[in-house]
Amino acid sequence: MMKGWNASDIPDQTGRTAVVTGANSGLGYATARELARRGAQVVLACRDAGRGKDAEERIRAEAPGAVVRFAPLDLADLASVRAFAADFPGERLDLLINNAGVMALPYRRTADGFEMQFGVNHLGHFALTGRLLPRLLEAGAGARVVTVSSFMHLLGTVDPADLSMQRKYRRWVAYARSKSANLLFTHELAHRLSTAGVPLVAAAAHPGYAATNLMSAAPKMEGHRAKERFMEIGNRYFAQPAERGALPTLYAATAPGVRQDDYVGPPLQGLRPGSPVRAARAKWTLSDKAARQLWAASEQLTGVRYAALA
Length: 310
Hints:
- By secondary structure, the protein is α/β, with parallel strands linked by helices.
- It has one domain: Rossmann fold (3-Layer(aba) Sandwich), CATH 3.40.50.720.
- The radius of gyration is 18 Å and the shape is globular.
- The protein has an 8-stranded mixed β-sheet, with helices on both faces.
- The chain has helices at residues 26-37, 49-62, 78-87, 116-139, 171-196, 214-222, 225-237, 242-245, 247-254, 288-302; strands spanning 17-21, 41-46, 67-72, 95-98, 144-148, 201-205, 263-265, 277-278.
- This is Short-chain dehydrogenase/reductase family oxidoreductase.
């Protein structure tokens, strides 16, 4: 890893196109803005049209000359994922940043009946990556898929017998499992890309403890103002800003020397400032067997096959 690396070290991205999911706020917004600043054409893939278009205008104001556009994408609906990929214009695709996510929600189901955290954080991105894979492979050397996980993945591995946690739902365990799924997905995708001998790189990143609206979303949804306020105080006094939280993602997406299945994060899980480093990960996220099992289940649940890597 490059010592002292920050956003100013992002290589020139002119001529490259990036898709960033959940780009209307927080880490996704900071990631999209910095890529646009360095010359990339950036597609802001967001669920809410109003917030997505507002983010588009804000990035143009903060990064004059930025080429950005909003495109609707709801990762909780596989029909929306399919439509996004079908409507993606003919230009090349160099970077897919699987950033969007939900955290510790009360039990909810996606439009397709999946537990919401597993459905959005993993299955939605699995389907999106598979549908955009042909375009990524066409881009050739330098193309990357970066999936945003969390240090919280250390709290729970994927249970292949109960992917939607129907037996007993615990919101933080469900979140941890979805973040482990992100790493297992990256592990298996990296293996398949290496086996196929193609230059597309699959890597993962995590922001540490970053100040975003992710943690307060569930209390707000449930009307728990005290919990919402508690999360806001934590963000204000203990978390690093979203701009720093986005650095590991930006490093994984653009820095030279990033390898298949790399996992990048801040020093000490973000509790200490510094440039991105290779992050510690649970041993179960490096299990070939678990990764293959999750991949097979994901194909079955989403109906998306990675034909080019079969």
